[in-house]
Structure formats: structure tokens, C-alpha cells
């Protein structure tokens, strides 16, 4: 089990595994096959992570929002350049970008499920973590 040797675990590792089971199953059944079906490349993974990193929020300033939009635009332009470098035509680029961004709601769903599961483990004192990584904002 993933949680078996963790120092943060304060209850039975099997219990924690059951809490996270549905989120992991969703990831395995929906996100991973999508990534395989589109033959996701490392460059695309980095671009997607950059898009998540530079996500806007209601809690940020106008200046930060503008910077986030600028960086996201740069990521998309760089991704487009990468696709051209590997020989894709405009239609192929459109399909790749569309398929890549169709992953976004699936990943957001996994993050939400993991956040909820982490909140449950915290509520029932199943893990000794002050603020789990996945408790942050999406």
C-alpha cells in the first residue's frame, strides 16, 4: 500500500486507501486512458502544468490576472511552435490542442476528489498533516 510506510499516517493504511480509492479509480479510468489515447508528450504535460500553475482566481489582483493571462498565452504560442517543429499542420495542431485541453476538466475533477478525500482524512485524524498538498486551490 502507498500509505503503509508513511510517517504521517495515524490510522490503518487500508482505511486511508479506501478513502482515496474512488479518486484513484477515476484517475485510472478517465485521465490515464485519455493521455494514452492522445499519446501525450512530455512537452504537452509541461504546457498543461503551466496552464494549471497560471490559473486565475477571484483572489488575485488585476496585475496578477494580467500576468497570468500573458503567461498562458505564451504557453499556448510555445506549444503551437512545438507542434510546427514536429511537423503538424494547422488542422493537426488544432486537434492536438483540443484533445490536450479536454483533459482539463478530468484533471480538475481528480483534484477536487483528492481535496475532499484529504479533508476527510484530516477531519477524522487519519493522517498527521497540517495542510496536505492537494488542499490548495485548483
Automatic annotation (TrEMBL):
Protein name (record): NR LBD domain-containing protein
Native source species: Meloidogyne floridensis
Keywords, in A-Z order: Receptor, Transcription, Transcription regulation
Gene Ontology molecular-function annotations: DNA-binding transcription factor activity
InterPro entries reported for this sequence: NHR-like_dom_sf, Nucl_hrmn_rcpt_lig-bd
Pfam families membership: Hormone_recep
Protein's UniProt keywords contain Nucleotide-binding: no
PANTHER family: HIGH ZINC ACTIVATED NUCLEAR RECEPTOR PROTEIN, NUCLEAR HORMONE RECEPTOR FAMILY MEMBER NHR-86-RELATED
Amino acid at each position: 500500500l502507498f500509505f503503509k510506510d508513511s510517517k504521517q499516517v495515524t490510522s490503518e493504511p487500508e482505511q486511508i486507501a479506501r478513502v482515496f480509492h474512488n479518486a484513484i479509480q477515476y484517475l485510472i479510468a478517465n485521465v490515464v486512458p485519455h493521455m494514452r489515447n492522445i499519446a501525450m508528450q512530455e512537452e504537452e504535460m509541461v504546457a498543461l502544468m503551466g496552464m494549471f500553475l497560471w490559473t486565475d482566481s477571484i483572489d488575485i489582483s488585476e496585475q496578477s490576472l494580467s500576468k497570468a493571462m500573458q503567461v498562458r498565452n505564451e504557453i499556448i504560442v510555445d506549444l503551437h511552435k512545438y507542434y510546427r517543429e514536429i511537423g503538424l499542420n494547422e488542422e493537426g495542431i488544432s486537434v492536438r490542442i483540443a484533445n490536450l485541453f479536454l483533459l482539463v476538466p478530468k484533471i480538475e475533477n481528480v483534484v477536487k476528489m483528492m481535496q475532499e478525500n484529504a479533508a476527510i482524512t484530516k477531519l477524522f485524524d487519519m493522517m498527521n498533516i497540517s495542510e496536505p498538498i492537494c488542499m490548495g486551490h485548483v
